[in-house]
Design brief:
CATH class of one domain: Alpha Beta
Shape: globular
Number of helices: 13
Distance between the termini: 54 Å
Radius of gyration: 23 Å
Keywords: FAD, Flavoprotein, Oxidoreductase
Family: Belongs to the paxM FAD-dependent monooxygenase family.
Largest sheet: 7 strands, mixed
CATH architecture of one domain: 3-Layer(bba) Sandwich
GO molecular function, one term: FAD binding
Pfam families: FAD_binding_3 (PF01494)
CATH superfamily of one domain: FAD/NAD(P)-binding domain
Number of strands: 18
Strand content: 15-25%
Structural class: alpha+beta
Protein name: FAD-binding domain-containing protein
Strand order of the largest sheet: 4-3-11-12-13-10-16
Length: 411
């Protein structure tokens, strides 16, 4: 998993930043290869001095462990599958497949591309004739991805594991090979690997679309076996597969869609932008969703139906344009890193080798400037020299400060 400066200030606010760094490596540079290990290009990230934070890489399970440690156990309920929900002026009620229910003021659907919350919400809106036509279209299936993290490896065979920063290698197949495979090193002498398959070019790959969850599946071994011979700068993918427990291998589908409907009544969807799998953009944007939604929920002074609807509407209004921009950026990144058509290969050569570095750097600076934080918590200190985009202040905090100033003036 990769996290960028666009979300790390929020981790710093929560007091999680230093622990996050303890199981991460900075991603300072990347090398792009053909499937035959011919170098296509090399790239470096912006300097820490200018940005303030490094992009960091780590095993996804490490972040899960960190977050679960901070959440009281009684607040986490597992093995709950949503069957339906109902919302009204008075609240929202969830019904689960074990016949239990839960009731609250706001329902946040953060359950991914095939969100049960979104499906239920859209069905209700469609029945009422108020679901936009764009949200009724079937999601385009662009890529699927297999991911895994090895157990500890022998540093004599993989000397790159000893480097302080992560070795990031991208191998991009040719027109007859619709795969991009990526390896990067993380602490504890482990390697994270990722195989991304462009759909529509290979019948075997397309067959794998049938399962769309992040859950381990034994039948994935068939696909892994077909990829064992793929080369990396440190041996074959088969070597890494052999060092990765099969139940730790996950698969996900990346559909191509930007939904227009994010909220209705007491229900709101986050992490539903469906960004394509490049540079951790999907995870970072989902986390930014959570930060900004928390800001708008915090500003609800009186919890009633109208105030909740207003807060969720304003959340979408503040967030949508940024996600829309990231959606187009993820498309371009996907073409560069994951594309295998003739024109995508031409585009890759142009961007990597002909576009002036100054233009690429300017775009990186612009992309890095957006760093939403929780506006009801002390702000993380400004790091780096680049200008950061200002964010909308908390109405509630402003009112509290104005009241305090009036009280001081009265004295």
């Amino acid at each position: 998993m990769c996290l960028s400066p666009n979300i790390l200030p929020a981790f710093e606010q929560l007091g999680l930043y230093e622990e996050l760094l303890s199981f991460s490596k900075p991603a300072l540079r990347s090398t792009f290869y053909t499937g035959d290990l011919e170098v296509i290009a090399e790239s470096e990230t912006l300097t820490t001095e200018s940005v303030g934070y490094d992009r960091i890489l780590f095993a996804r399970t490490k972040l899960y462990e960190l977050l679960f440690k901070k959440i009281p156990a009684e607040k986490v309920h597992k093995s709950k599958k949503i069957v339906s929900f109902e919302q009204s002026q008075d609240g929202v009620t969830l019904t689960f497949d074990d016949s239990t229910t839960a009731r609250g003021d706001i329902l946040v659907g953060a359950d991914g591309a095939h969100s049960a919350v979104r499906q239920q919400l859209y069905k209700a809106l469609d029945n009422d004739g108020i679901l936009p036509k764009a949200d009724t279209k079937e999601m385009g299936k662009g890529y699927i991805s297999l991911v895994g993290t090895t157990d500890a490896l022998d540093t004599t065979k993989y000397p790159g594991l000893l480097k302080e920063d992560s070795e990031c290698h991208y191998m991009i197949g040719d027109k007859s090979n619709p795969y991009t495979w990526i390896t990067f090193t993380v602490p504890e002498n482990r390697v994270c690997w990722n195989v991304i398959i462009q759909l529509g070019l290979d019948p075997i790959a397309d067959e794998q679309i049938k399962n769309l969850d992040w859950t381990p599946q034994q039948h994935q071994k068939k696909l892994l076996d077909s990829l064992r011979h793929f080369r990396t700068p440190n041996g074959t993918l088969g070597d890494l597969f052999d060092a990765t427990p099969l139940d730790q291998v996950c698969k996900v589908s990346f559909e191509d869609v930007l939904f227009d409907t994010w909220n209705h009544g007491r229900t709101v969807l986050i992490g539903d932008g469906m960004l394509l799998p490049t540079s951790g953009a999907g995870a970072v944007n989902a986390m930014q969703d959570a930060v900004l939604l928390a800001n708008h929920i915090y500003d609800i002074k009186r919890v009633n139906f109208e105030n909740i609807k207003t807060a969720l509407k304003e959340y979408k209004e503040e967030r949508f344009d940024s996600v829309k921009d990231q959606y187009s950026h993820s498309h371009m990144s996907a073409k560069l890193i994951l594309g295998h058509t003739f024109w995508e290969r031409v585009l890759r050569q142009i961007i990597f080798n002909w576009v002036p570095q100054s233009l690429l750097t300017a775009q990186l600076v612009k992309d890095t400037a957006y760093r939403p934080q929780a506006n009801f918590l002390p702000q993380a200190p400004k790091r780096g020299t680049i200008d950061v985009l200002p964010q909308k202040p908390s109405k509630r905090v402003q009112e509290q400060e104005e009241a305090q100033n009036k009280a001081v003036s009265a004295i």
